[in-house]
Amino acid sequence: MLRYLGKRFLLILPTIFVPLILVFLLLRLSPGDPAGMMLGDQATAEQIAALRSQLGLDQPIWIQFLLWLKGIVTLDLGNSIFFREPVMQIIPRYAGVTILLTLVALTLAVIIGITLGLVTAMNRNKPIDRGVVTTAVLGISLPEFWFALLLIFIFAVTLRWFPVAGYNPPSAGIVAFGATIFLPALALGVRQSALMTRMMRSSMLDVLNEPYITTARAQGLPESTVIGRYAMRTAAMPVVTVAGLSAGYMLGGAVAIEIIFALPGLGRMLVEAVGRRDYPLVEGGVLTISLVLAVLNLAIDVIYAILDPRIRYQ
Amino acid sequence: MTSEPMLAVSGLSKSFKAVKAVRDVTFSIPRGKTFGLVGESGSGKSTTARLVLRLVEPTDGTIRFRGRDLAGLSPGDLRRERRHMQMIFQDPFGSLNPRMSIRDTLTEPQLVHGIGSPAEHLRTAERLLAEISMPRTALDRYPHEFSGGQRQRIAIARALSTNPELIVADEPVSALDVSVQAQVLNLLRDLQDKHGTTMLFISHDLRVVQFMCDEIAVMYLGEIVEQGPREHIYGAPAHPYTQALLASAPGKGAGKRARLKGEIPSAHAVPSGCAFRTRCPSAFERCAIEKPLMRDIGNGQKAACHLLDEAKAA
Fold it and tell me: Would you identify the family this protein belongs to, as annotated (chain B) (predicted)?
């Protein structure tokens, strides 16, 4: 088990660094200059050049990269060009919202997906199965922002159960936090839950055809044990895989949801930072997302090992 | 009670939509004896096994096990009754749960049926491992670490773990190498002698059936065409199909009798009259018109063929 985890841990490093290198290069190779943006239209060429050398932007690109790598190792990600504040202080303000949003959305998606997947697999070709499967296709096809607006219209505007937008941190109390996070999380999670439903249904149907399930039934095991201990554990594996992919998608793709619900999250911060060519902040944001993603994937590898003892031995 | 057969099947039929998989099958197995079902693939042997185990609902007919009609049992009673009827399936790679250690595989049936304490479960598991000549260390290993023959021995140990009165073995050795088959069959026979278990043994391999069974029924297209004690079936087969099967078996007597031509007809379109007439070397007009009935030919042997009538009349 330890060797398995060690190996997984080593594989994390490229997960973190490859996106960082790509973002670093992409930012600097794309047009647009942070110094020009900061100084505005009236700035003279000398002023811009002075600011560029102050920010280190006049150095060759590989020197910039090495300096930045050194920054990561010494936990100094530099100052935001726009906020003129250390990136290490800005990121936590935004990252918390996005991570919590992702976790709540992922939990909702997994619960909905596994439940519906089970229900449909066990009622194959009955009306409930057809209904859910059709709805799931619809769920996969609809864009999240549309679903978000629909949820706001129904639950916030019409029923007034939840606030329309805004954010309360968990420190404001679990109810206040829940009220502001539930609708965005649902909007973000519903597509993933539709994917997971279909995944769970098909893998459940596969597993239910396995001879050891027949054997378990013939042995006289109660149906709850056959489904719970034998079938579900195996069928959940692909869902766990999808959950990992979903997490990545939600961490980086929550921008639209964060904007609609006015959540001060990382996605929104990143989009704004890219617009301002705020290199250090963008790089810091991507680093954070990569780190969180890597940790989540490690967690998923551990779940694999728990679900399938064979993995621990390989 | 002692004179009552362990298993008495009467008029058992099963149709899957238009396909008549099993038609009017009747047999009984005395306590402690082994009854063999032989036939080509598609002859309904495995469906009969599943019907007996009540893994499939029969379309018609009764199954009396230990003097009780299985159809009359509530789902809970049926589940409890399963303690006394265990099974061994063909595929030793599929019939063991890949995610359960051998310890769990061997103790779970006892746990489910509430036999003894956890300490006793473990003692039984250890005793069973000794009986199948496997080391105690196998307890903490998983099915994928064993070979096909070893797995099938584990499946046998699992079937014995609830100390059942009837074991249904559906092609228990046909997935194994010939060299391993003998080993597994010997083990099965030794354990049967030791535990006094009754067995329904299903195979397409005539030599295996001859080795294992006291009484044999030959199935063709879902029906029993001949039935009787082993020495009579092998010594003096009455039905042309049995004769052809024995002729096609490698070894002594091969080539002396007529061989079968063609394939078993589809169970969608069972031939009129005698189902075997399309492949029978001695078929005549009556076979297409009239279905031959099972008739007694002495020494407990029965067969369904018009030739037996003709022979008697001549």
Answer: Belongs to the ABC transporter superfamily.
Distance CA B132, CA B158 (A): 11
pLDDT at residue B302 in the model:
93
Domain that holds residue A104: 88-313
Q: How many domains does chain A contain in total?
A: 2
B2 part of a folded domain = no
Say how far apart CA A11 and CA A231 lie, in whole Å: 30
Domain count, chain B: 1
pLDDT profile of chain A (314 residues), mean per 10: 80 81 82 75 82 80 83 82 86 88 92 93 90 88 88 88 84 85 90 92 91 88 87 88 86 83 88 85 87 85 83 64
Residue A14 lies in a domain: no
Assess contact for B82 and A189: CB atoms under 8 A: no
Domain of B67?
7-313
Which tokens belong to B178? Answer: 């010939």
| Long-range contacts of A71-77, Cβ-Cβ distance < 8 Å, separation of 24 or more | A72/A287, A77/A280, A77/A283, A77/A284, A77/A287
A 83-122 near B (Cβ less than 8 A)? none
- Residues A200, A113 contacting (CB under 8 angstroms): yes
Residue in chain B closest to A222 (alpha carbons) equals: B79
CA angle B10, B14, B16 (to 5 degrees): 180
**A141 and A47 in one domain?**
no
Do A71 and A92 belong together in one domain?
no
Tokens of residue A113, six digits:
């997906």
Nearest CB to A211; choose among B83, B91, B142: B91
Among the three residues A76, A109, A128, which one is the final residue of a domain in this structure? A76
Q: What ipTM score was computed for the predicted complex, to two decimals?
A: 0.78
Last residue of a domain, one of A23, A45, A76: A76
| Three-class SS state of B202 | strand
Given an 8 Å threshold on Cβ–Cβ distance, is A309 in contact with B99?
yes
Q: What angle do CA B2, B115, A309 make, to 5 degrees?
A: 130
Q: Find the CB nearest B53 among A218, A222, A309.
A: A218
CA distance A252 to A268: 10
* Interfacial residues of B (vs A; Cβ cutoff 8 Å): 53, 55, 79-83, 86-87, 89, 91, 94-99, 101, 108-109, 112-113, 142, 144-145, 155, 158, 162
* Chain B partners within 8 Å of A313 (Cβ): 142, 145
Handedness of CA A208, A210, A212, A218 (dihedral sign): positive
Q: What is the pLDDT of residue B1?
A: 46
User: How many whole angstroms separate alpha carbon B306 and alpha carbon B294?
Assistant: 10
Judged by CB atoms closer than 8 Å, whether chains meet at B98 and A313 is answered as no
Looking at residue A222, which CATH number applies to its domain? Answer: 1.10.3720.10
**Among B168, B166, B175, B14, which residue's Cα sits nearest to residue B90?**
B175
Query: Which one of A212, A221, A234 makes the best mutation probe of the B interface by having the most chain B beta carbons within 10 Å?
Result: A212
C-alpha span between A33 and A35 (Å, rounded): 5
Question: Could you tell me if A52 and A133 lie in one domain?
Answer: no
Exposure on the CB side of residue A265, measured as CA atoms within 13 A? 28
Q: Say yes or no for a CB contact (<8 Å) between B95 and A310.
A: no
Measured distance CA(B305)–CA(B307) in Å, rounded: 5
Cβ–Cβ of A309/B55 closer than 8 Å? no
- The answer to the question of residue A168 being in a domain is yes
Chain A, residues 285-314, CB within 8 A of chain B, namely 307-310, 313
Residues of chain B above pLDDT 90, percent: 52
The pair of structure tokens assigned to A217 is: 């039934």
